[in-house]
What we know:
120 residues; alpha+beta; Arc Repressor Mutant, subunit A; three-stranded antiparallel beta sheet; 22% strand
Amino acid sequence: MPWTWLERLAQSRSANTYRVAVTLLYLHWKANGGPIKLANGMLAMDGVSRWSKQRALDELEQFALITINRRQRKSPIVDPVKVPGALLHQSGALVRRCTSAGAQTHQILPNLVRRRSYGV
C-alpha cells in the first residue's frame, strides 16, 4: 500500500474503509493498473455490506485517493489516483523514495498488501 494512502487513511472513521482500500489496491494491481469494477460480492467475503462499501468509497473519494464512475443499478468503476512519493515493487512490497544529500534511493518496506485471490 502506498505510504500516502496510509497517511490519508489514518483520518478514516471506519475499518471498512481500510478493507475497501486494500481490496481496491490489490485488484488495481491484478488489473495491471486499469480501472476496477467493484462488485458487492467481492467485499462481502471481508464482511463489508453494500452500504458500508458506499460509505467507504465516498470517504476514499473525499481523501482524493480514488475517482468513481457511478452507474445506475450497476457496480461502480473505481480508479485509484496515482499519488506521488511511493511505488509498489513487482513483488508487492512497498518501495518509498528517499532523498538524502541530493541522491535518490529506494527503501523497500514490508509488504502491507494482503494477498488474496478474487479470480480476476
